[in-house]
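Methods: example folding runs. The two proteins below were folded one after another, and each record is reproduced exactly as written to the output file, sequence line first and structure-token line second.
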Amino acid sequence: MKFLTNGYASILSIALVGVAIGLWTRTSQPNRPSKPIPRVAVQQDGIDNRQLEPTPSDSSRSQVGLPIEPEQSSIYYQLDSRQLSGRSLVGKSSKPIEMLPGIAHPLQLAEIAAAADGPLWKLNVAEGEVVSCDTVLALIDNRVAVASVIAAQSSADRQAMLNSANAKVALAEQFLNRIQQAASKKAASGLEVDEASSRLAEAKAALQEGQESQRDAISRLKIEQARLDTYEVRAPFSGTVIKIYPHLGETVSRGAPIIKIADINRLRADLYVPLSLVSAQRIGETVELRADLPNRPLLDAKIVFIAPLIDAATQTIRIVVEIDNTTNQLPAGFAVRLSQTGTDSDYH
């Protein structure tokens, strides 16, 4: 009996110790509000601005004093779908709008093709060389064309023949005047006067024929000179030689590219921006661009064109900007974006 009494006493002592530990644990934890304070308050037109009840799972855990796990510390709300019909919970975000980049390409770029057939005779430039407008960059074998020009020049040079025809006209006019004076004194017959007049008419006709032949020869000379010019490859504008396609001595065909030239003093890019941003832009204004370049992340550009049409699919407008590159420090072909692109609410 004494053994049983000691056993019950031991069990009672253990139970009291457990209760004491539990009470100490609860009193040592920081005081919590009986109802969790929500972290987010939803404010929308037509919706009561009040704190919504937490989910039962978090409420039940807080009532029994159990700690809420870190991943469960966010409070979720049960919202009435009828209250949020046609509304958005997302307010104006400060996240920049992600727009498609534009490519900064040369203001002028051309592949100069051959206008005549023949072997490439001369190359007057090298890749990377800066050339002026109308500079002869290359020459196709033009010896046959040169010979044709010389022949046409000889045909067009008929000044001696024209001088002889003019002299015959002058002589015929003098002879006619003398015959007419003699006829007035009854010293010449009317037949002689008619013969003198006919001789003058023939001289004038020969002179006119010579003049017409000379005009035709001059026209043929101009054609041959123009054909000779097709053997010369000239720069259509001032720029830098980017690429030379054939090698010296290769036979080129009409229409085949020979030299590629670019004007990189100014770079141009097309940008598609939201309507809200375009409304504040004007032609001639300067904008800041973000460039995909390691050493020049920010660039200034001037707006040169704003399209009058809206892209219905994206609700954007195309604007064209130009970047000054007179120092030729920027390579063409890099991507650019507007530095200030607004926020995603500009799309709504």
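Second run, written to the same file directly after the first:
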Amino acid sequence: MQRFISAALAIIVAVATFTSVAAQGAAAQGAAAGPGPGRAGGAGGGRGGGRGGMTPSAIRAVPAETTAAKAKDPNWKAPKTAWGHPDLEGTWTSDDMLSVPVSRGRGIGARESLTPEEFLQRASGDEGQKFRAVNQETILRNERGVRTFGYTSMVIDPPTGIMPPMTEAGRARAAKSDRGTFGTGPFDGFDDFTLYDRCVTRGILGSTLPVIYGNGMRIVETPNEVVISYEMIHDTRVIPLDGRPHLGPALTQYLGSSRARWDGDTLVVETTNLTDKTSVGANGNGTRHSDRMKLTEWFTRVDPQMVEYKVRVEDPVAYTAPFTLRMMITQQPDYEVYKYACHEGNGAVGYALSADRAFDRRVEEAKAKGLPIPQRDMSSPYGPPVEGLEVIEVR
């Protein structure tokens, strides 16, 4: 597996490729974060889809969930630690979930699994994506899983598989927040950028849902806590198992106050005391939740190389109803959790601010000369700017 990406190098690549004035910030963040699920159908996006497909490999030729040890033998038991807890330790990733959309498409209804024809289309698309990532594309696009899952969506509750609509208050928050460097600007100060742009955090959900790279997590256990370290933005959660109460309500944190317990072979983690600064989305530019959100996570090892992960989102301020996502985090050949050198090479904020100030100057010059107001180019950073627009270098 070719995994030699770093945030610093990625930023350099993207900035060198795309230097349109109004898109400087988007290019820099595209390097730091990738396009992020949510651009096409929400986190996970349903990428793959059979475009440029290839014959699936043997491991990809059947729905991966059907090959899990627990699926083949309901009496299968997860290994235990030396002190008797179920063993979740290891390096895991959500890469295998990249082609599973968050919400189901129309006409699927309550069906949780793809038909054989639909699965073949997804698997062949994933195989083609993997081939191109390894052999043809840049270092920004070389992290793909080796399995294909047959889930119709990550959302499993409500039974429709569709994320509930936002409340009026949630929509109002979404309309004025989280512009980020993939947004349309203007960019006037630090508050116009997400915590992801600024290399601070992606939040719990953002750190778990799959994006273009950096989807690894390392789980370590002791008798008294479980420790989860995420690859991108390198957050680490130390989650007590000793039954202590949550923090007092006055104290909030980006990753909240997490407390865990074992329910049979399943680790149950409840998180409260969150801020309203992170998002329910994988790319940092998703929908801001409120500080009343509560997360309940379930980790169940169902195979030597698979952990089923479920998370319930309850946020009465942002959403009209709770919802539950299901993913499978898996082990990959030769996968390592790499250092994420985000601050060291992050030009997202600086480039976006300097680009907007350059754009402001050009607008004023155009007004003074009676010329048409220049256009803002907010096209995708993964390609050339809009045809006909002037491209200048911003330093």
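Comment on the second run: The longest helix spans residues 348-369.
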